Amino acid sequence: MLASPFLTRWYCLWQVPDVALPFDEAEFLRGEEVAEEDDAYVNYHAAIRSVVANGSKWVATGKSTADVWSAIEEALNNQDQPRDPQVDQWVRDNGETLHQYRLGGEKPLAKGPAFRTMDANTLLTAHNDLRKLAQLARIQGLICEAGGDIDTAWQWHRANLQCARHAETPKIAICRFVGMAVRSQASYGIVRWSESSAVTAGHLRSARKDVQIEAARRTVQSDCSFGEYLVGRNTLNRKDAPNHLLPAWNRGLTADPAWLPLKRIGLWFVGQPEVTLRLQRQLLLNNCNSINLPLYRRAAAIPCDAAVVIETRESLARGQLEPRALASVQTNSPWRLGEYAPSVSMPMLDESIRREDARLFALTILLACQEYYRDHAEFPAAIKDLVPDYLDAIPFDPMLATAVPMQYRRDTDGNAVVWSVGQNQIDDGGDVNALGRLDKDTGYRIVSPLVRMPSALEPVNILRR
Prior knowledge:
Layout: H1 4-15, H2 25-30, H3 40-60, H4 65-77, H5 85-93, H6 95-106, H7 127-146, H8 150-167, H9 173-194, H10 201-216, H11 221-236, H12 241-245, H13 260-268, H14 274-287, E1 301-302, E2 309-310, H15 323-332, H16 346-376, E3 407-410, E4 416-420, E5 442-446
Antiparallel strand pairs: 1-2, 3-4, 4-5
Helix pairs in contact: 3-6, 4-7, 6-8, 7-8, 7-9, 8-9, 8-10, 9-16, 10-16, 11-14, 14-15
């Protein structure tokens, strides 16, 4: 009886063998070293302070900032309809906000909370506001475009592309999602911009290059996994770690800090927190060499709860669990990773990154098609007509497990559509108009260049210093 608690601990640890951390932690952390003059967040924080100050002024005059942000959403969803006048006034009042946002985009790096100290309680204050700043920049881009200033309009869309990359710092899943949201704002703005008759083939070539450069700079999924591990480890090193491992212990009578030593002893006998950290290292070792590959180049994924487990094509490392055994341990484990780290479901992140890949591939093809139109007065009859003068090759659909090119069709009205099969992996014939429907195709309608009506609002001078 006296030995049984120790045998229980040994058995729990034996179920999940220990393996070395499958990445260079020192090298990973070295990327956090950012000089203040290179840090985009210095300007983003200044932009946030500016927009908050303007909001206070609005409230003082009886206006509602909630109403103006709702009006901005409406204006972005219905871009050909007259805007609410308060949207234009809000843009005027936020000239300094936009100026700081644009300066932030020009910075090469961004410094978020440090992984050396970051844990589940660390707040990501700036990230909550970056999407709103991106909406404001997108509205300013529309105003510049309507006024005929195509070059300045592009700079606002590029600022959103750059902010999306900065938003992915620190490299954890939730920040990757914020980056996706800002990049989505940029993408829809670029689609609209490309439809203007004032945009030339040269503009489109340059824009396509910028999109491809920023797409290549995105945070890869393995880095998100490494970051999640470090945040989780820091959380489990906290004195209140038992409350993160078993959240139910942080309620009622057991919420008293006096219970913490007893909780820690109880968890020690079941191998915690060591088992949880071992399990995460096993998951990293399983997929860190293949998770960044396109789906059609990976081995098959094994159904697993809240984790991505991939069949290995190589020999196992010392102590490494066979993939199906690892999936079984993870699925049946009572220790849910998301309960002690600011994370989201890693399978959800994996799907979302592939869906973003599809949108960026579609955007690149759309820009190539618009450039083709400027040269030939029509969109290409077939997607292969873009190679090699406009694209080096047609990208494969990232949502499919087989190497199938992205889909394209020119319709009888002269417009076109480019798409991926989407999350359901079923080709719905280019049904890309159902916003928010993940079970439909992912892509864009490609519309012939249009003449826009001029705007009465002057664009903000983003070049002032």
